[in-house]
Amino acid sequence: MVTPGGETAFISRIIAESIVLGERCQWYTSLLGKLSSVSFVVDELKAKGIKNWCVKEFVTGGGKTRRWGVGWSWGSRRPREDVCRGVTGTGVPKHLLPFPTEFSFRLTPKMGIDAAAERLNEIMEGLELQWQYRSALATGVGFAKGNVWSRAARRKQLREGQTAGSNQDSEDSEAGEEEEEPALGTKISLTLRKEGGGTEVMVRWLVGRESVLFESFCGMLRREMMKEL
């Protein structure tokens, strides 16, 4: 296909149209034949305020032909790591890739998966957020309205008291027909590692618009899980 201005101009028009359509379309995608075009498109997305994008590399012809897919969304749902950062170790500069959607760390060998699950639930249930853990899968899902793990948030929670907070949440739910979009949603999985022992904690970013919030949560969780009890 030949278009005035080439592939970058064509994708620029799609980006402009996506601004109008917004979240009526969950994801917008493009296929590029030049690596230099990837840089142009990602810079264009950043300039338009888009914080949720993906870069995927496609290799065909026995490794001789490469194409790149760039997708973006105005929504807050985050794709898997292998989707949003689906490139090989070479070629695409790291600054063109979105923020990682997965974070993992390994606990000490003496902490088994049951002890890790108990500690995880203790941490999450102590925060002002929605949390559901399924022991059969060793996986939990949590949604927060903001940074509820900071020291300031915890002090505020203690001052207001759990009862007052629960009553207010009930009143808000009854008053509003639509639930407020969570600022952060994560899935946390526990896996017992055979090599070296210990439990691995995998945090998957599900929902959210601000990478700094996900990064802050992962840092807090790692510190709290690694504490000597």
Nutshell version of this structure?
Helices cover 38% and strands 26% of the residues.
List keywords for this structure.
single chain, 229 residues, alpha+beta, five-stranded antiparallel β-sheet, four-stranded mixed β-sheet, 7 helices, 9 strands
Structure write-up:
Helix content is 38%, strand content 26%. It is an alpha+beta fold and 229 residues long. Strands 5-9-8-7-6 form a five-stranded antiparallel β-sheet, covered by helices on one side. A four-stranded mixed β-sheet has the order 1-3-2-4. Strand 2 and strand 3 form a beta hairpin. Helix 1 runs parallel beside helix 2 (35-47). Residues 163-168 and 173-177 have low confidence and may be disordered.
Helix/strand/pairing category: alpha+beta
Nearest-integer average pLDDT: 89
Q: Give the strand line-up of the largest sheet.
A: 5-9-8-7-6
Series of H and E elements: HEHEEHEEHEEHHEEH
Major sheet attributes: 5 strands, antiparallel
The Cα radius of gyration reads: 21 Å
Number of DSSP helices?
7
- The rough form would be described as globular
Query: Approximately what portion of the residues adopt beta-strand conformation?
Result: 25-35%
- Total E-strand runs: 9
Contiguous runs where pLDDT drops below 50 for at least 5 residues: 163-168, 173-177
Give the distance, in angstroms, between the N- and C-terminal Cα atoms: 63 Å
Helix content: 25-40%
